Amino acid sequence: MSEKRENNTILNTKIWRYLTSFWTVVLYGVVIADFFTKNGLHEFLGPTSSIYIAALALYSAQKEFERWHDYNIGRHPGEIYVIIWTALILTLFGLEAIYNNDYKMPTEVFTTYIVVIGILAVTKKSKTSYNSKGWDNL
Fold first, then answer.
1. Residue-wise over 80-92: b if at least 16 C-beta within 10 A, else e?
2. Out of 38, 46, 72, 81, which could bridge 66 as a Cys pair, Cβ 3.0 to 4.6 Å?
3. Is the pLDDT of residue 41 over 50?
4. How much is the pTM?
5. Looking at the domain assignment, is residue 17 inside a domain?
6. What average pLDDT does the structure give for the chain?
7. Does 132 fall in a domain?
């Protein structure tokens, strides 16, 4: 029973990781294309960001559930998402300043960035709490 439950958990985590990665790439593509079309894809940013945030939140929650129930396998650091988001936003700011075009960074991009940072902060706090409890001594 335990092995079947662990395999099911592993499968769920992989599905959420792949789904999150897929929507990450899609959203990055939409954000970049929106820049080059001078906000021409603005109407797609809201729905795409929402799907991405939901997938990321579910994946992060699944990973934390696994950590707290000792099913945590593999390591996929959330800092990577924050680093890429930071680089993307800084690049857009730089390009916007250099080319001084009609592009205005949509609020969905900022909001998504803030949510990603928030999810990372919560998962880091959860990891710190889990590691400081001394669960190995129980």
1. ebbeebeebbeeb
2. 72
3. yes
4. 0.76
5. yes
6. 80
7. no
